[in-house]
Amino acid sequence: MQVWKFGGTSVGKPERMHSIKNLITEDGNRKIVVLSALSGTTNALIAIGESLKSHNDAEATQKINELYAHYESFIKELYSTEAGYAEGKAIIEKEFSFIRSLVNIKPFSVKQEKEIVAEGELLSTQMFEAYLREEGVNAALLPALDFMLIDADNEPVLKFTEEKLGAILGQLTNKQIFITQGFICRNPRGEVDNLKRGGSDYTASLIGGAIVAEEVQIWTDIDGMHNNDPRIVKKTFPIRELTFEEAAELAYFGAKILHPSTITPAKMKGVPVRLKNTMEPAAYGTLIADKTTDREIKAIAAKDNLTAIYIHSTRMLNAYGFLRKVFEVFEKYKTPVDMITTSEVSVSVTIDNDEHLDKIMAELKQFADLEECDKDQTIVCIVGNFSADKEGIALKVLDAMKSIPIRMISYGASEHNISLLIHGKHKAAALNALNERCFLYEDTMKEIFSAP
Ligand SMILES: Nc1ncnc2c1ncn2[C@@H]1O[C@H](COP(=O)(O)OP(=O)(O)O)[C@@H](O)[C@H]1O
Ligand SMILES: N[C@@H](CC(=O)OP(=O)(O)O)C(=O)O
């Protein structure tokens, strides 16, 4: 069985839902279809939650009315029969009456916040499943809240999904298409929770891992993972093949097309992940698997809003104890470190989550000298095949960056990644310069020298 995930942009319009129906039924194969909320809905629900948190009930009610109006007009175009429309109407009435009921719950806590954002996926999947039934498709809805669970550290419990989902599917052997919600899950208290923004990709891969799917397909609005950020760089192109490691680096370092955690369960169970374009289904897309191609530099991505911390040893500690002490502080505050560079007496790191920055700095100061932190930093990550015996790769990268100030460089930790830390204001210039030097210039040269 395959698992296909359609993101917000792919379900955001009634006609897109119509094309998805054709796509998922065309090959006649059984599949699990994971849907996100309609594009814009999760942001709208978060905004309603914000209004409620700040006790602005009138503003929240107005936002709810606007969102409701959007769904009302959506279902008018989604269904073609009166019975179908009546089902769609009943679904939105039920979910919006729940959303409206949250206005009366005081105080509006994290529990309600999680419940409200889950409504996006609950709406899209029920509406779509009713549409499939209207069209005579043999479909069933799988409630993700029955089989997706995170533990106290917010980590998905794959064993739970394997057991629960296996049992549910065992009862539905006569069904062809299974629809389920991306993003949402339960936490150990049994409450509604989620896998963080963009988490529907992660759901698809967790389900793929749990049932050891033949393949996980992530359908979006672009023809695969591009070699650079298409929102910032003009001449980008899709990459046909990536290894799990390369894809994981790109997703983690900012390639928005994929949620950073998506690769882990798929890789663990050896399930290939394919990125496909809903608007252009015939396009090859990107296949993420074990196989590698021999291109050296494959892609570039950037991760923003990082904080750089510069730590110097006061030499009061033995050199071999210093790094351990430093990292214990980050561990204590559950703050992952993205990038590290070291000299004999200093270590510089970047962090993404600066929630505990003050406390971290205070603890580090007890045994180290600190410089002022730098905010608004960006990691530019160059991904590819950089085995240790290859020459000239770093030179090419640094040559492209010759007019951009670099604060940190990391090379050699993995054979797939060179990372550079720059100020966020140089990001667009850096991505474009690297694109020119590492792809356009290179490909032109190759063509010139291989011409007959
Ligand atoms: N390297 C990249 N390759 C492809 N798309 C990228 C890349 N970096 C950023 N993107 C952006 O990711 C978008 C798709 O991701 P997303 O909006 O999360 O899709 P969905 O709503 O389907 O989940 C694309 O429209 C594209 O602008
Ligand atoms: N709806 C959620 C989950 C998600 O993955 O959405 P998308 O597939 O559109 O990125 C969000 O906006 O975060």
TrEMBL record:
One of its GO terms (molecular function) is aspartate kinase activity. Pfam families: AA_kinase, ACT_9. Residues 2-277 form the Aspartate/glutamate/uridylate kinase domain. The keyword Coiled coil does not apply. Transmembrane segments: none annotated. This is Aspartokinase. It catalyses: L-aspartate + ATP = 4-phospho-L-aspartate + ADP. Its EC number is 2.7.2.4. Belongs to the aspartokinase family. Keywords: Amino-acid biosynthesis, ATP-binding, Kinase, Nucleotide-binding, Transferase. Pathway: Amino-acid biosynthesis; L-methionine biosynthesis via de novo pathway; L-homoserine from L-aspartate: step 1/3; Amino-acid biosynthesis; L-threonine biosynthesis; L-threonine from L-aspartate: step 1/5; Amino-acid biosynthesis; L-lysine biosynthesis via DAP pathway; (S)-tetrahydrodipicolinate from L-aspartate: step 1/4. The lineage of its organism: Bacteria, Pseudomonadati, Bacteroidota, Cytophagia, Cytophagales. It comes from the Bacteria. Gene3D superfamilies: 3.30.70.260, Acetylglutamate kinase-like, Aspartokinase, catalytic domain. InterPro entries: AceGlu_kinase-like_sf, ACT-like_dom_sf, ACT_Aspartokinase, Asp/Glu/Uridylate_kinase, Asp_kin_monofn, Asp_kinase, AsparK_Bifunc_asparK/hSer_DH, Aspartate_kinase_CS. The keyword Transferase applies. Residues 314-355, 380-436 form the Aspartokinase ACT domain.
